[in-house]
Amino acid sequence: MTLETEVQSLRQVPMFRDVDPARLKLLAFTSERVQFAGGQRFFSQGDPSDTAYVILEGRANVLLNTPGGEIQVAELGSNALVGEMGILSDTPRSATIMAAEPTTALRIDKRVFLELLAQFPQMSLAIMRELAKRLERTNAQLVAQASS
Amino acid sequence: MEKSLFRYIWTHSKRDQMIICAVVLASLPFYFMSLDLPRQIVNQAIQGEAFRDGNATAPLLKLAFDWPEWLGGGKWEIFEGFQVGRVGLLMGLSFVFLFFVIVNGAFKYWINVSKGVLGERMLRRMRFDLFAMVLRFTPNALRTVKSSETATIIKDEVEPIGGFIGDAFITPVFLGTQAITALVFIMVQNAWLGLIALAVIAVQFTIIPRLRRELLRLGKQRQLASRQLAGRIAEVLDGIEVVHVHNAYGWERAEIGHRLFSLFTIRLQIYNRKFFVKTLNNFLAQLTPFFFYAIGGYFALRGTLDIGQLVAVIAAYRELPPPLKELIDWDQQRLDVQVKYDQVTQHFAEERLGPMLEAREAEEADQPLVGSFVGEDIRVAGPHGDLIIEGGAFTVELPSSVALISNGGAAASMLARILARRSLEFSGRIRIGERDLTQLPASVTGRRIAYAGVDPILFPGSIRDNLVYGLRSKPLGRLKEDRQEMDRRIAEALRTGNPVESISDQWVDYERIGAKDENDLDRILLDLLDRVGMGDTIYLFGLAGRIDPERHTSLAERLVEARHRLRKTFQSNGMADLVEPFDPARYNSQATIAENLLFGVPISDEFRGRNLADNAQFRSAIDRAEMTDDFVQMGLQIAETMTEIFEGLPPGHSLFEQFSFIGADELTEFEAILRRRGRGEGSLRREDRTRLLSLPLAYIESRHRLGLLDDAMTGRIVEARGIVHEVLEKAGSGGVEFYDPEGICAAAPLRDNLLFGRVSYQVANARARVAEAVAAVVRELDLQEEVERVGLEYQVGTAGRLLSPQERASINLVRCLVKRPDILVIDGALAPFDEASSQQLIQLLLELFDQQSLFMVLPNDRQAGAFDVQMRFRDGQIITDKTAAPAPRASSPEPDAPQRIAGEVA
């Protein structure tokens, strides 16, 4: 797997869909590809947010701490972006991510990511668009819940 | 130091000066002989005067004297000479001439060398004397003395003085004799003309020095101005941060520019004056022949002087100027040097210096500093004349621990400095037992009192050097050194008033601190460092350090064992993929292509980084392996990718430095190379190829992921590795130390020797896990102390700048602790630590100083309860309270045994 295939993976991520290919290449180049064994944690709930991950291969579980122990709330597959909210909002991890099987991910450093956003407005715009879409979806869900 | 330069020179070198003078005088007859011989050769041999009376032979080397008339006359023949023919006489006299040429040359050589050596010895003495005075500067003087100015004085300003010393006495003697001879000759010919010449010379010798006085004043100014310039430059450099913070470049530039302008103005004045004086001097010198021609000619016309005499006088006068001119030059140089010397001695004026440091002080006074410690009527004045302590008194039974609780003013700190003998500016009496604190000799206080202030002063060198600094008061044992070399060194030292001790002697007093030898001392140092909380840092320094297999023999022997053990641990714990080991037969995908090709660590710079691509040996090796084109191709691909993805980032952006193969400033150059190639300009230029070649050398497949390497390529690189080794070994340059799975690579850091591989970039959290495993194996094999001993060799840098403030403070503290002083005074040395650590350190100090005395300045009462005695300062008084029932010193919760963090291993 090379930089090119990583760039292909990044293109599948909705947040990066509109970003210029050369910038995606830079993002991939400045990131690290890391492997997690099954059961190994990407990070735990409450940790400081210093990185985001794009899953390239494998699956990971999203776990939440509850009084009754950790419960799984979602599963992530290839091309999923995880941890980006934490680095954008500068808040601790809101959930634990644990590899469900041997998983390869692209690790995006917070500082580098923010550097790139600051440097390339077009990239920031793409991110904002995605965030706005998410907000709209959430609103729609809230409306749906309220009306039901 | 002597006020007069000449007295200084004469006191310290009269013997040498007289010997050289004697040799100069002894050489004169030979010199005159060689002047006389050409005349003899022409007259006697060539023109044949010796054969005028029809003699077929003439005597050669005949030595005979004519006794003067008043001794009865007659002839004394020492040697009648060889009877030789005309050609024989010519050849004989010519060879005698050659002989004198050689003898004169030999004299000249000896005199020059002796003068030079004499000057160098005096320079060494003077520099050492000045340095000895630097050590004696009083605290008061140190407030105004600038270090860089002092360094300039000792290094530069005394240099011309040293050059002058060889000529100080010899030149005037030599030239003076010559000038007087010529003058006497003129006098004998004609007294009047002689008097005229004398009068002009007298004018020259009175007016010129007078005119030069102004020149000297300017010279003095110039010296001060250039010294201040040096001082100012050093100040700016030392305070460069403030310049950056406040954007004061403009001001500093203008400041230096102004100084350079005034320096230029002074120099301009000097030049104008100097050449005016020179012109006047030349005019006066030419005035004498004018008188000779005019007055002498007039006398000749009148018939009172015969023409032959006049011609002889003028000829003799021609002989006069060179020595006279040189003599005047010498005088100029003398004044110049005297001015310099005066300036130097003023800098080291007596009132700025403390008392002489006695080299050997009485040993019998060296008793432990215990007993009743009594201060009476202590008065300390502040910088503005206000009294900080006014009639303070205290009584403390030593040993005990005393908290000097600050009232927010300077009193506590001031008293601490007085107790540590750092300040003598107080009145009153302080006694320990029967002894007066101020009268204790430096050898006793240096050994029995330690002081740790706010500023941890570290010297460049290793951590160990800094820690044992306080143990080096005098040499205890001689290290074996070459007998002859030692005799020479000591003889020179004695001749120049330098110390005879060698720094390679054993200076560290192991016994005093209860250590058996060097290793034992290291153990004590490490224990103390660990207790002040620096153990982990030292361990990490050790892992990053390089080992010298000769010094750390036991560690070197066991390192390979540890390496194998570590490998087994990795395999048995399923961590085998964390580290990719160096294998001579396999490509290491976690290492750069350069490292894979060299399979070793560069020692010399020409094999490091970009230089490798330019290295002829390396290039010929990869040429032989037929890989150059492949690498250039890879370089092109890297350059293309880099120019594509880094385009648009402003130059100097941190991402460049961190990630790019190409610096921001090089980007355009590589773009140009790519454009040239894109236009199809055929083959690349040689320097382009070299530049491109340097790119893949830094490429790590698993990190950069450009997909440049496939199995076939890695296989070829491993094959090329053999060729590279062969070529480098044949060249014998020794620029690279190769990896050996069963041996130590001294050029690589200790942790690389342990891991013998590279930590994987791909496995999450690999570094921390590897570091833990390394720490476990080091503990298991009991190598921790050995590793930490390597850490003691860590270089602290100028003023310890390579360390953090906490580390500097820790080392400062341990330097005091290892000395085991009777009294330790601490004033602000814990400032860099946070509240919790400083509390722990205070507990530690109280424990360590259970049997000795500890005086500590505390900002408030909070920590004071643990001390035996509390001193408070109020209205200039010292109030001493004894803790009613001092909390048992060990009652503090024992800090947890420091958990070793394993740290980063990369």
From TrEMBL, chain A:
Pfam families membership: cNMP_binding (PF00027)
Q: Which Gene3D superfamilies match?
A: Jelly Rolls (2.60.120.10)
UniProt cross-references to SUPFAM superfamilies, sorted A to Z = cAMP-binding domain-like
Start and end of every Cyclic nucleotide-binding domain?
15-134
**InterPro entries cross-referenced by the UniProt entry:** cNMP-bd_CS (IPR018488), cNMP-bd_dom (IPR000595), cNMP-bd_dom_sf (IPR018490), Env_Response_Regulators (IPR050397), RmlC-like_jellyroll (IPR014710)
User: What SMART domains does its record include?
Assistant: cNMP
Q: Which PANTHER family match?
A: CRP FAMILY TRANSCRIPTIONAL REGULATORY PROTEIN, HTH-TYPE TRANSCRIPTIONAL REGULATOR ARCR
> What protein name does the entry list?
Crp/Fnr family transcriptional regulator
> What is the organism of origin for this protein?
Microvirga terrestris
Automatic annotation (TrEMBL), chain B:
Q: What keywords tag this UniProt record?
A: ATP-binding, Membrane, Nucleotide-binding, Transmembrane, Transmembrane helix
Q: Name one GO molecular function term.
A: ATP binding
Q: Which residues form the ABC transmembrane type-1 domain?
A: 93-329
Positions of transmembrane segments: 18-35, 89-111, 164-186, 192-211, 283-301
Q: Does the keyword Ribosomal protein apply?
A: no
The record's listing under PANTHER family reads: ATP-BINDING CASSETTE SUB-FAMILY B, ATP-BINDING CASSETTE SUB-FAMILY B MEMBER 6
Q: Where in the cell is it found?
A: Cell membrane
InterPro entries in alphabetical order:
ABC1_TM_dom, ABC1_TM_sf, P-loop_NTPase, Type_1_exporter
This chain belongs to the protein called ABC transporter ATP-binding protein/permease
Topology in membrane: Multi-pass membrane protein
List compositional bias (Low complexity) regions by residue number: 884-894
* Family matches, as Pfam families: ABC_membrane
Q: Where is this region: Disordered?
A: 881-906
Q: Does the keyword Lyase apply?
A: no
